[in-house]
Specification:
two-stranded antiparallel sheet, about 30% helix, binds guanosine-5'-monophosphate, about 190 residues, 10 strands, alpha/beta, globular, single chain, about 35% strand
Length: about 190
């Protein structure tokens, strides 16, 4: 077990068979030292790539992305925003996605000036589950003509299909903690 897996075992709360709560160090309160360790491990896993920019999505990906961006030489961080679906405008790259938690469509978007075909992106998030957030960011990256060096998350729930589908599509996906199974009744968490 690595440092993040140990912390998850110690502090995470299994809300249901699919939702893991890590509010004490990632999603509500942020442990900066832990964020540094996660970012350092992400940097190590993409050490051979010349990354020019990080793309993440609001809100919880931002903290990890900022610390990682500093480690990669103060490269810019762009975070995709989420808004209720409206008419598309020409000045944004937009990917429309259905939110199961909100039961409505959201537009995930980045303003065009912040991404372009010279960029080589590392896409970062806190969690990877079904892959909706990553798919939206990949769509935005491709609309901009940017190159994608890879995708990285703090926690991958490996029993949901997102990570493996993205790997099958040929993307380099790195998760710092990869959960094989979790049991809401016993509180047990197994890692891959
Ligand atoms: P996906 O789009 O891959 O299904 O889910 C990833 C997104 O949903 C992440 O941006 C993350 O914020 C949120 N998410 C998915 N599953 C969990 C979970 O178990 N715990 C937390 N805290 N966030 C999750």
């Amino acid at each position: 077990m690595n440092f993040l897996e140990e912390r998850i075992r110690k502090e995470a709360i299994i809300l249901s068979q699919k939702v893991l709560k890590v509010d004490s160090f990632i999603n509500h309160q942020i442990d900066v030292e832990m964020t540094r360790k996660i970012a350092a491990e992400m940097k190590h896993r993409f050490v051979n790539e010349e990354i020019t920019k990080i793309l993440t999505i609001e809100a919880s990906g931002i903290a990890i992305a900022v610390v990682l961006a500093e480690m990669l030489g103060n490269i810019p961080v762009v975070f995709a925003k989420k808004s209720p679906a409206v008419n598309n405008s020409d000045d944004r790259y937009v990917h429309r996605a259905f939110s199961f938690t909100h039961q409505q469509y959201f537009d995930i978007y980045v303003s065009k000036p912040f991404l372009n075909s010279d960029d080589k992106l590392l896409i970062v998030d806190d969690f990877l589950a079904d892959g909706q957030a990553m798919t939206a960011m990949l769509s935005i990256a491709h609309q901009a003509g940017a190159e994608v060096a890879g995708l990285t998350v703090a926690v991958e729930k490996g029993f949901q299909p997102g990570g493996n589908e993205l790997r099958q599509q040929g993307y380099h996906v790195e998760s710092i903690a990869r959960i094989k199974s979790m049991n809401a009744e016993t509180g047990e968490i197994e890692f891959m």
